[in-house]
Fold these 4 entries.
Entry 1:
Amino acid sequence: MKLYRFSPIDSQERLIEAIEYIHFACHKLCVDTFGEYLPNAGNIGVFCHYEDEFSYLKGLREQLTQASDNPEQKYFKLHQPIIISAKDGVPETIYTHLYIRKPDSYRAQVGDIDFYLAQEKYNELKQSMLNGEELKGARIFPRSDLDMIEMYNPDVDALAYVSTNAMTEKVKVASVPTNLS
């Protein structure tokens, strides 16, 4: 039995397959949670499960993205955006930034993407959740440095997040703690 859906990813073609899977799985999480597709932030994360896979994908990412002098940068700008065409109601999305995450034994998911809401709508959503309103498949992300709501489903091996557009732009340039990179 294979433990992870795509890992180890060992080719650019397999990486693109994983990205397409993450895209559709995360949009499913979004519509299941909110009843609609929220605007997509344009960044996608691929989660590694093996050290060799991480080394390979880090090298591939270096070919596909712009170089950075920030050794702890999380998202890297793609030379050529990855465009996923609309399908079965899921809107076309253009991914401009790629994140390759180190293996984490607590995260078996294939990857994640971010959605965003206007600041006022996000504040209302978060406050309602803080006030005890339950939203099936959503929880406030527990890291205080990232103001986000996580969308999840134990039957879907991807994660999605919603925050404000300002926050999604911030994570594209911010460094990530070394234990999560």
Note: Residues 12-173 form a domain with the 2,3-Dihydroxybiphenyl 1,2-Dioxygenase; domain 1 fold (CATH 3.10.180.10).
Entry 2:
Amino acid sequence: MDTLQQMTGVWLYGGYFLLSVVSALFPWVNAEILVLSMSALARTPSALILVVLIGTAGQMAGKTVLYWAGRGTLHLGLRNITRTAEGWHERLKKYRWGPYTLMFLSATVGVPPFYVMTVASGALKIPFVPFVLLCTAGCTIRFGLLVFMPRLLIALFR
């Protein structure tokens, strides 16, 4: 591979990472479309894995900012979501795994909305390490399915 192709790849993946961060912070920038667009450019299975990992890393970098905003460490003007989170806290505290299950489901399938659950996780003072681990696993699964499921179905029906 020549130097120009390598530089193009670095810029392409770097831009993709930054757009993934932006999509985590601004819900109208769709992460799934970004992942699918990048997967269309990938030529090898290892490049597809890289697409999934970079998309997940960008999402989680942005989501950690929202988590700390929900926690009150960063001030981004998210008071309404924080108040909503406090209402959810009352419902969920009777279930031992309730908040953790919701975080994982939200990161994996987007229901409840991942943006809201991220801020709520910070507002509810859910420990940071479980938040990062569960949400990273959920995002990796979601993006992995988006990237590999179409290829699996095509191979299955050939």
Note: The mean pLDDT is 86.
Entry 3:
Amino acid sequence: MTLSLVAIGGEDSELGAEAWLKDRKAIARDAAGYILFAAARHGDRAFFERLAAEVRRTKDQRERLNLIGALGAFRDPDIMRAALELVLKGGEGLDAREMRGVITSQWRETRATVWEYVKRNFDELNSRLPGARGIPYGATLPSAAGGFCDEARAAEVESFFRPQMANLSGGDRNLARVLESIRLCSARRKALEAGVRQFLSTQ
């Protein structure tokens, strides 16, 4: 547990990840996902490539999901672009159905990167990836823009998705939910902004 806490909370987050990558028994199974995630937040391109190689190699479903979750946690937009490319073009050892988890990343540093990817690849994502419970995968893609927090982005998201959702079961409902979330966030930010500015002006 001590090693887990150091890896998650400290600057030495790679410590736990390195231990796990070398020996899966070195870290408690329940903690591995958190450790890989924390290491990815501080990781570079070399670490990304190592994680991607591990996804291709391992057959354990839980390990794969932990690794894929970490691939979507890097701060560098260029690394995030590389992770997103693995969804549809990862090749042998990578399943697009698993890799789509990368698209749900909502980190401030890379949410615009995810959004651009979804716009560019919407048709292929919708046609290649399976939906669930009668809802096509494309109908769920508005959630990729759910991390935005301003009216300009809300308008952009609505403009892109409105025609896309027209013929996708459940799409309009999902889009409405995401737009509401963005606009509520924008309203909260505006409401708080004046108070924050006033506070800072007195410091």
Note: Confidence is low (pLDDT under 50) at residues 1-10.
Entry 4:
Amino acid sequence: MTIDLPTDSDPRAGSFSRGTNQIGVRLYNERLILSLIRRLGNVPKAEIARLTGLSAQTVSVIMRQLEADGLVLKRDPQRGRVGQPSVPFQLDPDGAFALGLKIGRRSSDMVLLDFAGALRREIRLTHPYPAPDALLDFVRQSLPQLTGSLPAERRARIAGLGIATPFELWSWEQEVGAPAGVMDQWRGFDTAAAIAALSPWPVTLCNDATAACAAELILGQGARYGDFLYVFIGSFIGGGVVLDGSLYPGRTGNAGAIGSMPIATAPVAGAPPTQQLIRSASIWVLEKKLLAAGRDTSRLWRAPREWEDFGPPLEEWIEEVAASLALAIAAATAVLDFEAVIVDGAFPAAIGARVVERTQARLEQVDRQGLSPVTLVQGAVGAGARAIGAACLPLLARFGRDREVLLKNNGTVANGTPAAGRR
């Protein structure tokens, strides 16, 4: 199962300026080199050749083309002890752009991302619950605000619009406090088609937590690990899976749906022995605690990077999150031998650090005999990960490392090895 990527645009790395007569190996190598530069930042050609196994001549030819396409920039020469100074390359921030839309249960965001992963512009809409008509109005108004300041040549380099949305929005009517029947508007509503009618660029739709995982993979801690489970604590907790360095959306696009994982609850007469993780490790749970304490909860959604001190309800919530998330991590690593678990959320970085610290402490108390150790780390992208991840989807489609481009062309990998039997 792969993410439904745009099909009406040329997915090659240099497709803004070149024709379509390129063989699969060249395409794969371009994407491989762009992904390497994105991960390392500044890389000279000799280092690219060493890390990829490509010949120096092949790297030189590709780098000249990528530079001509406006996708990479030369940096100042770096002098070593002997020989000619090396010239590192970096991604050209203006080489490509992408738009991202996050549809949330309490807020929606639209962002403009450049090729280097910097957030150029961001627009937020808060709402008591999402509604299709209001969302379309938001998109209609935001698109010109986000792109209007770009010169025409740069607007032509917009790769697409990615959408990150929770699946089955209508299932959470009671939890979001919507009037009875209102959320049913989402049943049968074709979000991608409706937004595509407003967008001159290709549209990609993905589960919101999977999109956040894509952001962490491309721009955050994900490049350090080959396989990891990603956890995003938003209004409701969700997640994503990366295997062998690639985003794995699963058979139906719902891989990493960690919020639905059952966990044991404290014994209470008449209560079920388990509940889903979503009911103990989501910001929605903190909102309920704050409301019960008579606190204003609007800042949770208006400024997720700048929460105030919410006092005892916040302390209690962090402990509940840690206790339940530790059990879920142990269960997940028993199924897939993840190298790491990356935890992020729609909260300030300081809160994220405390959640990770307390979850690590709780995980050490879980009986994990027979399981390999797993590294637990805080995500680097932060509260905007879902919208940023949505914008990453078109960039992945156009420029990301993709083994399928080889299989669809000549069945070989970058170094000429036959691809038969490879996943």
Note: Residues 1-15, 17-22, 403-423 have pLDDT under 50 and may be disordered.
